[in-house]
Amino acid sequence: MTQVRTRFAPSPTGMMHLGNARAGLFSWAYARHHGGQFILRIEDTDLERSTEAAIKVILDSMAWLGLDYDEGPIRQTARLDRYRAVLDEMLADGRAYKCYASREELEALREEQRARGLKPRYDGRWRPENAQGKAIPEGVKPVIRFRNPDNGDVSWTDLVKGEISISNTELDDLVIARADFVPTYNFAVVVDDLDMAITHVVRGDDHVNNTPRQINIYRALKAPVPQFAHLPTILGPDGEKLSKRHGAVSVMQYPADGYLPEALFNYLARLGWSHGDAEKFPREKFLEWFDLAQVSRSAAQFDQAKLAWLNHEYIKEADNDRLAGLVAPLIEALGGKLEGAPDLARVVALVKDRAHTLHDIANAALLFYANGKADPALLAQHVTDAVKPALATLREKLGAVAWEKPAIAAAVKETLTQHGLKMPQLAMPVRALVAGQTQTPSLDAVLELFGRERVLSALGTSL
RNA sequence: GUCCCCUUCGUCUAGAGGCCUAGGACAUUACCCUUUCACGGUAAGUACGCGGGUUCGAAUCCCGCAGGGGACGCCA
Questions:
Q1: Calpha distance A457→A398 (Å, rounded)
Q2: Final residue of a domain: which of A177, A194, A215?
Q3: A46 CB neighbours strand B below 7 A
């Protein structure tokens, strides 16, 4: 069997959302699983709507998710000469022809067909045999249409959906080049996939209906038809299709929201694909297991909560220095000051188990980097006259003890016994005094990280 | 409207005729742990869209219906 070659071919006309990313991920994974090649192609033939900014977002998103490509990015606009050459060949022998019907004329035709309950289709009025002797209208720049076969069926075995068959009578002569000679999607995609020797076209299932038209073009070009795999749609959290105004979020929003790339990668991989009961798996396992046959055939709804759970799982096992680097700017954005404060990697190690996003880590870590001044009401509530003697005892013990968690814990315990108190009775006021809040990780760990100097001085203010 | 595709717990899914009184995960609820908030642990509830077949036996095969999605552009 020849080398597997797949591609991801987004159009830079909007944002790169999860649906696009998932299509890229599966296409990439299929190539990698088979030791093949993966090509990135930018479908920018829609000159009106394509933007450089959108191309950058595509490249950034792929880099963040770790989807590497062997060739590209190849822009369709760089290949216009090639499309024109193919167009000329097809025009020369009647596989394609010029159509002078105006947009208004076509719109009227569609209206009329719809009114009669028919599927709107071009009626072939400028096919060579129908155009005999017909006057070419003044000032109309023609489009080029593909001469679709009139009879028979087009069928293929979709690697995800199975057998699909459509009658040629359902199809019409589609426009393959606009009046300005720029090819349309259905034509450019065929020429490209052909020239780039794509063996497996893995894409969203909104293209299922385009596939028979494309197969007809492959045949007209006497070219081998690749295998097709149509991935089910990803729906938003509300079950609606992802779209700009309906909850579609750019892939690059996820790093901004504090998600790790391995978490989104894993989530996307598992959405609409499964390998037995496997839920959490590294990319190596995914590449080893991935197969189109396990892709589900129905649309899948995005679930924020499950992504958050995976992110939590990956945060727990992530390297502390790496997390510290990611979280540092977030803490500063919250007004925290990193200089002269406890080492961030150690703080991260203490708080990351409870975090679902990097922002959760930043918020939990902030107490070590804020000014630590407690609300007077909070102090009044916890630092009562009844506990002050105990606080004094604790301060004295902590002044003498080795500054390590076990010794600090022992000092706390002794103080408790000595004053006949329960843990919360002492821990709460200490937290309020030292950290400025009563919700913190375990007391001994917090005190250790704050350092003796800060702890003694904070306890001193209460006496 | 016409054509194409899809349909298992709230969500993602396992399931390819008997292993299914339908399994896992997230979420939910309860309990446990506990030094607050969490984390963690244990447990529970919840699903084969509907109707007909085929078969000794159907979530699994066939037909119909309903619902959902997609396409019908000089967008991709």
A1: 11
A2: A177
A3: yes
Q: Which of residues 132-151 of A touch strand B (CB under 7 A)?
A: 140-141, 143
Nucleotide nearest to A119 (CA to C1'): B2
Per mean pLDDT, which of A104-108, A259-263, A276-280, A396-400 is the most reliable?
A259-263
Q: What is the ipTM of this complex?
A: 0.93
- The parent domain of residue A438 ranges over 376-460
Q: What is the DSSP letter of A181?
A: S
Nearest CA among A329, A67, A83, A316 for reference residue A184? A83
* Catalytic residue numbers of A, as ranges: 244
Protein contacts on strand B: list nucleotides below 7 Å from a Cβ: 1-8, 10-14, 23-27, 34-40, 68-76
* Contact status, residue A17 vs residue A250, Cβ threshold 8 Å: yes
Residues A229 and A250 in one domain: no
- Evaluate if the CB of A323 falls below 7 Å from strand B: no
Q: Is the pLDDT of residue A1 over 70?
A: no
Answering whether pTM is above 0.80, one says yes
CATH of the domain at A287: 1.10.1160.10
A167 and A220 in a single domain? The answer is no
**Does A66 share its domain with A199?**
yes
SS3 state of residue A98:
strand
Q: Are residues A89 and A67 in the same domain?
A: no
Report the distance from CA of residue A198 to the C1' of nucleotide B61 in Å, as an integer. 36
**Contact of A261 with A64, CB cutoff 8 Å:** yes
